[in-house]
Specification:
By secondary structure, the chain is an all-alpha fold. The chain has 10 helices and no strands. It is a multi-pass membrane protein.
């Protein structure tokens, strides 16, 4: 995630960190070059068809509406992912307090909290499809990576520890409801991660955007003249930029600069639970070049 204050004019014009411009720049330059080629052919080789700009205005409005709809759907996924991780933070903090109330044995309390931290890291690793499970092993003390589903294995171990350590039936019920809430948030994140936006949306958006930008020079030749490549580049930046932003937001658990800061969220929970384990809280993660992972 990019964290920075409101940029000034110069930063707004030239900021690259967090922008999709580096990824879409080859497309913008390519379409601008094709527009220049169309102008040159029209002026020096043969007269090409000159169309009216009115159909492109209607076409552009329809494309903008569709891009807006797709962008809203992608942002809903991003925001739901953030809400689910916020729920996990709240549930793990509540679990630590409930364990203090309902589990009398200190070693068993520490085991439950360590397994909770191990689960959280394994959940993050599973969503991002990472291979390094050392943070989870460091906290949980066990390696669950050989299990068919490592986060569920850690949560099962946590549930077993709760069943053994809880003082009575009421305590087991309260802690079981807490682990069920954790599992519900976990399932919600996995639903987002494994169910992308329909591919047909991406296919239609990119095909239509290319078609629009390729035909646009024929509508601008008369009015814009040799400024046509510049206008085509601006239009391509807007449409391809929106499409690329949508692609990033639709994958909220990835490692792009605009994805959710899962490492920082895990560190927040570590800072909450570490004192209960008799450890010094680790420092909070800070943005590096405005990027918080």
């Amino acid at each position: 995630m990019i964290l920075r204050d409101k940029p000034g004019l110069m930063q707004l014009l030239f900021a690259v960190r967090g922008s999709v411009l580096p990824r879409i720049l080859p497309r913008i330059l390519g379409l601008s070059a094709l527009s220049a080629l169309v102008l040159w052919i029209d002026a020096n080789v043969m007269r090409l068809p000159h169309t009216n700009a009115a159909p492109f205005a209607v076409f552009g409005i329809a494309l903008s509406l569709f891009l807006g709809f797709r962008n809203n759907a992608a942002y809903d996924r991003w925001w739901e992912g953030r809400r689910l991780w916020g729920q996990l933070v709240a549930d793990l903090r509540s679990l630590s307090r409930e364990v203090d109330l309902f589990v009398a044995e200190p070693d068993r309390r520490a085991q439950i909290l360590r397994l909770a931290l191990g689960f959280l890291h394994l959940h993050r690793i599973n969503l991002r499809k990472e291979a390094d499970t050392s943070p989870a092993i460091r906290w949980a003390g066990d390696d669950f990576s050989e299990s068919p589903h490592a986060p569920c294995a850690a949560l099962d171990a946590l549930t077993a520890a709760v069943a053994i350590g809880a003082d009575d039936g009421f305590a087991r019920k309260a802690l079981a409801e807490r682990t069920a809430s954790i599992a519900l948030a976990q399932a919600g994140c996995e639903r987002i991660a494994t169910t992308p936006l329909p591919y047909v949306y991406s296919l239609l958006v990119f095909r239509t955007t290319y078609l629009y930008c390729l035909l646009l020079p024929f509508a601008l030749i008369d009015g814009a003249g040799w400024l046509t490549p510049i206008f085509v580049g601006i239009v391509a930046y807007v449409f391809f930029g929106l499409a690329e932003v949508t692609e990033e937001l639709s994958h909220p658990f990835g490692e792009t600069v605009n994805s959710l800061p899962l490492d920082a969220i895990c560190r927040t929970v570590e800072r909450t639970l570490a004192p209960k384990l008799g450890q010094e809280p680790p420092p909070p993660l800070q943005p590096v070049d405005y990027y918080l992972s």
